[in-house]
Design brief:
Helix content: under 10%
Oligomer: single chain
CATH superfamily of the largest domain: TonB-dependent receptor, beta-barrel domain
CATH class of the largest domain: Mainly Beta
CATH architecture of the largest domain: Beta Barrel
Number of strands: 53
Structural class: mainly beta
Number of domains: 2
Shape: globular
Amino acid sequence: MDTKVLHRLRLVLGLTVVSLPAFASISVNGRVVDETNAAVDQARISLRPAGAISGELYSAVSDPTGSFTLSLPGPGRYIATVEGDGYFSLKDREIEVADAALEIQDVHFTLNHEREVFQSVKVSASPSAIDVDKTSAERKLTGVEIVDIPYSPTRDLRMALTLLPGVIEDQAGGLHFDGGAENQTLYLLDGFNISDPLTGKFNTHLSVESVRSADWLSGRYSPEFGKGSAGALEIHTDMGDNPWRYSATNFVPGFDTRTGLHLDTWEPQFNLSGPIVPGRAWFSDHLDADYAEPVVPGLPGGQNRTQTFQTSNIARAQVDLTPSNILFADYLINYTLIPENGLAVLSPASTTTDIRSRIFFVSAKDQIYLTRGMLLEVGAAVDSGFVRLSPQGNALYDISSFGNMGNYYINSAESSHREQFLANLFLPAFEWMGRHQWKIGTDLDRLHYWQNIDRTGIDVYDTSGALSRQTKFGGSGLLSQPGLEASWYVLDDWKVRHNLAVEIGARQDWDELLRRTAISPRVAASWAPFGWKDTKISAGYAILRDATQLQLFARPHDQYAIDTFFNPDGSVASGPLLSVFEITDPHLRVPLYQSWTLGFERRLPGKIDLTATYLRKRGDDGLAYANILPGAPPPPALIAAYGTDQFGGIYNLTNSRTDVYDAVEIAARQRFGEGYEWMVSYTRSRAWSSAVVDMTADQPLQVLDNSGRVGWDAPNRLVSWGYLPTKWPRWALAYTMEARTGLPYSVVNGMGQVVGGVNSQRFPFYFDLNVHPEFKFKLFGVRWAVRGGFNNITGHGNPTVAQTIPGEAVRFYGSDKRHFVFRVRWLGKDGTRT
């Protein structure tokens, strides 16, 4: 390892040795921090007696304050190794532990964040060994992996997340974690909720080069994270340190040859970080822009391309007010312009919409280290979003089995807003039947949504071209919906023995929409059987909750649909019939999800990590709108309110939704050399719901039985990716591969009715292989990395659209053909580490 790098890889142990008589057990307390004095959580500290080639290891894992405690058999010289996911490892560092006759000593080191390294810098970032102290089911992507591994498009963090086993993208581009809907995952940016306040989805765009790690906790995760039955995604962003660092990626426009040579994408990314006051304050700033002319497979030339423009900037700062008081601040802004959004093989340009949107987020968090290892963390954040959707005209929207025509029927302006406050307190550890570390906290959120929507109408045509159904809209689309959420939690991290850890906690959530208090207990345990260091068995049970969506409660105040049905000769068959939404039950229950998990981890020779996980999740009392017709007559109050007794649907918000998810996952992963690694995983799963289609005024399909496989159900899925060395020192080979069962879709007849059950059919088998060689070199004192490769190199057909025409074979469209991708990165001047 480079001597300069060795000099900088230091770990602040802050050793306080409680001395006992010679050769008696000594309790050692210490602390792990990074290069800016911030605490390092879940770092593994291992000590062995100096001179011993093999033998007993004494290890501990740091808590969220960076503190740890371990017991040694006596004073003397020890060899320390410190590892942490996302950090350069510190290996074979000698320390001296004093005996009772000496004063308390401090040995100071720092653990540096893992960053991309150039070939000539020999730095290894190996993964931590199997940690009994970790009881949660955690999957992680480091910032280096997000940059190195090829996916499409590489500028989109959302697509990088599909590299994680258990995360799948649906046909519309939505992300789903462990079989959950998009809004069933809690999305956090540096500790704060960044999900859309209205829908709960992850719509925020971040530069992929701003991300230090993306950690997904699922199944048996801590009660600190609530409001997400599918888990919690923690995104940690970059922070500067004392050296100045700068880099740029893709500042040269790209070209596409799929429909003739033309500009494909230009997605420049610029990164700058460094000190504000060396040793006291630092910053980082990541700016990215994206101009693209995507090709829509299946459309004729000249009509198959559109344009998109998107830019984002995230800036972060840290100020060490004192050695024990650290202030963090984040600022993020997004802007998006998408003309002709929705262009697809069955949706020509006239049916598209122009979209303008912006997102603003700002946060501040203060960490105060108190006496006796206590840590108080308080923070506040504000985020707001606005989106404007404009159709190409005012004509009605025409839907048929052969494709869509006319103009899209929604003209809207929407805004959402969230104010949040959080506080967490880490209490001093204490001994009682083992070691206990308690943590308590609270979270308060104020939300607000506003919309002004004007809808025209929808015409549905049968296979003969005759009008079979017309939908128009009544009422006002102008509304606002507030929301208030309050939560608190308590957690006991209990180290029962050196090979057994238990995490017990509970969470309470309340919101003003349901006006109910929900308690969510959780317990998890991990055990290294028979004292094995490289094997762990873990299990857990948790009651999980989802955030109550403003969108559900705003629906009764929105416009309602008015349907008229026609005979083949053009005469009216029935209607006009109103479809309305209401909330009549004042005692709706809080949805409840129960999760059972069992996991096995084994470190194999060559530092290959093998994991096997079983997850069983059941959701009850889910909120869904259910049609009370034709089983019950329209209520008199409803007849009086709308002035008619002709209703096609009366949708009442109920606790009728049930969700089922089962999964068995096996994965292997190895990291070796200077940043090289590979991963392969296989998942067997099923995802089912009694409310597959979300019934809204904008839902044109008629569904009689709404139960079935959800749209992202993939019973068999194999994922592999890697960044591998070659026999040429400056060349590397990056690849990704995904093979899975085709996702489900519904068959729709000429009346707009789902035939044969929701999602009763499946797309063809999906296979995608991306292979990208990369070359790193120095030129004129500047370091470069150039990559060129093929996405979908096998040219396998992976359609995203199914055209179902009664009496004819299904036609599939939307396959993304094999195409070449080029990337160039400027990594800064020679001698400047990035």
